[in-house]
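Weekly structure sync - notes
Attendees: PM, LS, DV (DV joined late)
Agenda: review two folding runs queued last week.

Item 1: First target. Sequence and structure tokens pasted below for the record.
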Amino acid sequence: MQPDESAIPATDPFALFEVWFAQAKESEPNDPNAMALATASADGFPSVRMVLLKGHGSDGFVFYTNAESRKGEQIRANMRAALLFHWKSLRRQIRIEGPLAEVSEAEADAYFHSRPRASQIGSAASDQSRPLPGREVYLDRVAALEERYPEGDIPRPPHWTGFRLSPRRIEFWHDRQYRLHDRRLFTREDADAAWTNTLLYP
């Protein structure tokens, strides 16, 4: 039985996110936790790519990456980002904006070692976003790590970490016929402030 959205407090966007996310898990054919992550360099050039949500709650939305990748470098230079969930099966999207903070080493370790061993090796072997002279070079590095660590977990590379976005804006968008869409925007000044919300013209 689906939760009743009308019972959700009007000041709690996280509760509404939980409802929509639960419905997406039931209706999306693949990766309901996929989200577009938009970052910008220190001089303001934007970049966007798809990543996976790996944790969420009232403290924010967590994803993991190689901090020496292009997006990692942009994040370190400009600790603000935007997320977009688009669930075509539900005709809904959620836009989230706010500052970023790096997760603790314990959190990064726990998630890294929760991944399949092959994924741990693939991440540790990759100089993400750097030029690759040939695929065999990467596969040779994978094989070398498999030989070096024949059993158990792979040590987490220090540059492989996670970031938590603490939202300042969350917009819920629901498609309606003839473009008479529903849009509701929640905003707050900082992580300790109360949320305000308003409807937006579509």
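Item 2: Second target, run right after the first with the same settings.
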Amino acid sequence: MSTRFPVSNERIYAPYKIAALVEVLAAQGIDPADSLKGTGVTPDEIYDASVMTSVRQYALVCRNAISLSSDPGTPFRTGARLHLAAYGMYGYALMSCLSLRDYFRLGVKYHPLATPTTTIEWHEYPETSEWTFPEAFSTNLPHEVQQFLLEQQYTQHVTHLEDVAGRRCPPLLARFSYPEPPHAPLYTEYLGCPCEFGAEHCQLIYDSAILDMQPHLAHRHSAAMLQETCDRLIGEAKTSTGVSGEVYQVLMRKPGAFPSMETVADALKMTSRTLRRRLEAEGTSFVTLVDDVRCSLATEYLKTTKLSTDDVAMLVGFTDTANFRRALKRWTGKGPKEIRDFG
């Protein structure tokens, strides 16, 4: 079953995406105050580092853009303007990573830090590597707003990979699950690849041969430090927002105990069915949160203690060390030794 991606109203993101879109609209002669109408954000605030905004506020600016502008290139130009340097720690962590494989993996892991407007997945196959957007049209936003956000999202991905690689690195193919729009030539212009419409899934497909490439700003020490910071920021978000934050805190009260969903639901004074539904509304699940806790604990034990891998596996709930190693690789892309050696 597909969960509905939440259009969050939590004001926890810097307004860099709002600023980029407002600038693109201003170049078309649209007053920033009109672009921001109804958001509660002023033109001065979009450049104030202390101001926090929500995904819902950004979606409202997109809706304003659609009604104010007749230029179908607006979302593409906005995506092309959103370079990774605008994303703070998230952006620098991606730019300093040690391979493009790490870039793809970390782009998914740290996506919650980037004012996420849709969910993303990354899959590596022998010949291709694919970004997939499984819930691109599963919010309550109007279809035209969701399409606007997707056009921007695809262009952002192309822009970000170019930032990391230090050169043009276009996809092999872009797929879209909706019919070909009248402005389809803009897709090829901005994405730099053939585009298919009416496809089963929304996907950006790359040649797997690029995965071992080293980013031009790759730096082992910076990568480790920035990824540790992003891990901490992700952890803080999990423990401080929504029902998922409450679940995370319950799970961390007795590290290694891993109570059942029914037990956690009782602790939060709700039924397990209600807990499942509320977690789905936040774009997560109980199993995902348990895995997050296991991953956090395992990483901490490996980095800060001399416990054997067998002991760490047992402490985070694995009776089979081989299964633990596979899970750790899935969670972090690293084995126990790599985590101990490099963090």
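Discussion on item 2: The domain at 241-342 is CATH 1.10.10.60 (Arc Repressor Mutant, subunit A).
Action: LS to circulate a short write-up before next sync.
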